[in-house]
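From the shared-data thread, chain only:
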Amino acid sequence: MIYCVEDDDSIRELVVYTLDTTGLKARGFSDGREFMEALAFDTPELILLDIMLPGEDGLALLRRLKGSQKTRDIPVIMVTAKGAEYDKVIGLDSGADDYVTKPFGMMELVSRIKAVLRRSGRTQERTDLEMAGIRIDVKKHEVTVEGKPVILTLKEFELLEHLMRNRNIVLTRDQLLEDIWGYDFDGETRTVDVHIRTLRQKLGEKGAIIETVRGVGYRIGEKL
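Structure, as tokens:
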């Protein structure tokens, strides 16, 4: 369960709906009082917390969460219209695990949530993935297509795994660069295109499962 604390009804409802439809069960709260009352009965896997809330603001709530033995280990992503570097520093220094500034894309938010859950160890990821005849054994670092082994480079393997874990979600080239190659990678987004092309070739007919979303990036869908 993911808790979303957001006083804007339209944003809160959209976030909860998006998380529910992508397999991440969510519950929304319009203020800190309602949120803290729910925490007395349930412990969420992650909290999305707005700063500008009626009554007690998000930063005060964050400090309460991190000051309690019961809730201090719950990952928190700050979601707010405040984009100044100072506000980000305050949030992160107070114990937030990530910081998303409005306006944001829903699929980017889903990706960020999954990344924080992986880092925190709050979710157990599958070690075998299968789709349209493509199978990945993460522990053995093996890929097969219709039962036949396919040899991939490390980055091709990581790219395929990342796309399959985020099936039906469009990942931008910049997101893929950051997630697969890291923050300090000096290359261009064309690096992603080159690896996608060779990955498709190695997967043969099944390579068509990797869809190009023109002007945005790539996704693995259900069309095969």
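The CA atoms of residues 171 and 218 lie 5 Å apart.
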